[in-house]
Amino acid sequence: MIALTNTPVLDTERLVLRAPEGGDWPAFDAFLASDRAAFVRAADYSEMVSWRAWGHVIGHWAMRGFGSFVITLRGTGRAIGMCGPWMPATWPEPEIGWTLWDAAAEGRGYAFEAAQRARAHAFADLRWPTAVSYIDPVNTRSVALARRLGAAQDPAAAHPGDAPCLVFRHPAPRVSN
């Protein structure tokens, strides 16, 4: 299997964030097939939609030079989700997104740890001047995570698509003189 090359690897105390690989698709597919993916699936689950979505994740790296990282547990390499900078062609602003594929990974602070590191990468390495997170209004866990990350709701911001969506704007890092 061919892997993406020259992509950064981001480390945290408990996690390694790396580029997606073809071998991650079964875990992603299982997530998309579950009820837990209701907030990220644009349509009812099908293997074809899941396959195309995974191709979108990998292709984003090739087309933009950045993309969502697969979140893996340090020491085991087990893929538990995805997090990172994201900006498909129709997005009005660059986004920091996150999903945990494995329900057992929820409630342990992994998404917070990964999102902090991915956001720092977007601001420092990609030099983004701003970042938002687009969140389904009924996704209370993601709303809580955005707030925990210090993001504030921006009702005036545009969002992709026609579905209801909250836009949370992330604070830019402080620049020291």
What does this protein structure show overall?
The protein is built from 4 helices and 8 strands; from the N terminus they run ββααβββαβαββ. With 177 residues, the protein is of the alpha+beta class. The strands form 2 sheets. The protein has a 5-stranded antiparallel sheet with strand order 1-2-3-4-5, sandwiched between helices. It has a 3-stranded antiparallel sheet with strand order 6-8-7, with helices on one face. A hairpin with a 3-residue loop joins strand 1 (10-11) and strand 2 (15-18). The termini are far apart. The mean pLDDT is 93.
Overview in brief:
This protein has helices at residues 25-33, 47-64, 110-124, 140-148; strands spanning 10-11, 15-18, 69-73, 79-86, 95-100, 132-135, 152-153, 166-169. The protein is α+β, with helices and mostly antiparallel strands.
Kindly report the name of the CATH homologous superfamily.
Answer: Gcn5-related N-acetyltransferase (GNAT)
- How much is the radius of gyration in Å? 15 Å
Q: Count of helical segments?
A: 4
Q: Return the CATH topology.
A: Aminopeptidase
Count of individual domains: 1
CATH architecture: 3-Layer(aba) Sandwich
Can you tell me the overall shape? globular
Instruction: Record the strand order, biggest sheet.
Output: 1-2-3-4-5
- The counted number of beta strands is 8
Assembly status: single chain
Strand and helix order:
EEHHEEEHEHEE
Largest sheet: 5 strands, antiparallel
* Fraction of helical residues: 25-40%
Q: Show unreliable segments.
A: none
Structural class: alpha+beta
**CATH level-1 class:** Alpha Beta
Averaging pLDDT over every residue, what do you get?
Answer: 93
